[in-house]
Specification:
The protein is 58% helix and 12% strand. The protein is built from 5 helices and 3 strands, in the order H-H-E-H-H-E-E-H.
Length: 113
Amino acid sequence: MHLPTPRSGMSDHELQGVSTKAREASELLKALAHHTRLMILCILAEEEKTVGQIEDILGMQQAMVSQQLARLRMEGLVNTRRDGRMIYYSVGNSGTLSLLRSLFVMLPETAKQ
């Protein structure tokens, strides 16, 4: 897939399309711009989990985890699956995992302690 690139001589319709894509990308980045949401996505990268399992891993209250999962779900970054009373969360699509991998590759290695 190529990057949508504004260039001289584009029609208004073409420029509008590029602008729409940029706006959508901006909204996605806003959804990712929270450390807890990034942590949740990293947790879900391996396998689906319940809110309680995510809560235990992060050491956070259920309300905070649920709030962040709701935002991720609203943006289509996570999926849910119900099994009886349990709701399981998983990463929404492989593109999300690719984006996370690319993001973390850009960061410098942290010093081992």
